[in-house]
UniProtKB/TrEMBL annotation:
Domain (Ferritin/DPS) ranges: 24-162
Location of the region described as Disordered in the Swiss-Prot/TrEMBL record: 166-192
Skewed-composition ranges (Low complexity): 177-192
Domain of life: Bacteria
Name of the protein described by the UniProt record: DNA starvation/stationary phase protection protein
Matches recorded under PROSITE patterns: DPS_1, DPS_2
Molecular functions per Gene Ontology: ferric iron binding; oxidoreductase activity, acting on metal ions
SUPFAM superfamilies: Ferritin-like
Length: 192
């Protein structure tokens, strides 16, 4: 179902340009809402020897991502469009699968979360580039988010990295495989 064009947008953009940027941002809004929920899910379901470190590391990330959600929604509204933040819309519009790990060891969750952040950051970077062709203000907003998202990704990867720089996830492509690889390396006591 195509959305109608907004009645107005920010100065110097056409309503078509504003709607195009708002559509880019709606995808980011969905991704960030999903990320905040995923981080909280992990926070509640992490167990094992690294429990407290991971449990406490995630709440500030949740708070920061929720602030990003608000900023993106407000930018959509500023562009004259209507942000959609309902769970049904998120599920209907998302292009990724639901997070696949339940109660699990901290290292397993971090292995899966490494892939989640990789996907969110890659899509955010692509959206920033596309937005920059039309609207530098939106590009700046997304680039600012990338700073924090990449920092949080580093926090996750620091738990998965060996002294030689290898990641325990071993280049796996699915959350469950990355979680399993990270857990296996942790159980064996080395990351190559």
């Amino acid at each position: 179902m195509a959305k109608s064009l907004p009645k107005y947008t920010v100065p110097s953009l056409s309503v078509e340009e504003g709607a195009t940027v708002a559509t880019l941002l709606q995808d980011r809004l969905n991704a960030l809402n999903d990320l905040a929920l995923t981080l909280k899910h992990i926070h509640w379901n992490v167990v094992g020897p690294h429990f407290i470190a991971v449990h406490e590391m995630l709440d500030p990330q949740v708070d920061a991502v929720r602030a990003m959600v608000d900023a993106v929604a407000e930018r959509i509204a500023t562009l004259g469009s209507s942000p959609t933040g309902t769970p049904g819309a998120l599920v209907a519009e998302r292009k990724w699968d639901d997070y696949s790990i339940g109660r699990a060891d901290a290292i397993a969750h971090l292995g899966a979360l490494d892939l989640v952040y990789d996907g969110v950051i890659g899509d955010h970077r692509e959206a920033a580039e596309k937005a920059g062709e039309i609207d530098t203000v939106t590009e700046d907003l997304l680039v600012g988010h990338l700073h924090d998202l990449e920092l949080f990704h580093w926090f996750v990867r620091a738990h998965l990295e060996s002294a030689s720089g290898s990641l325990q996830t071993g280049g796996e492509k699915t959350e469950k495989a990355a979680a399993g690889a990270a857990e296996q390396v942790a159980a064996n006591g080395s990351a190559g």
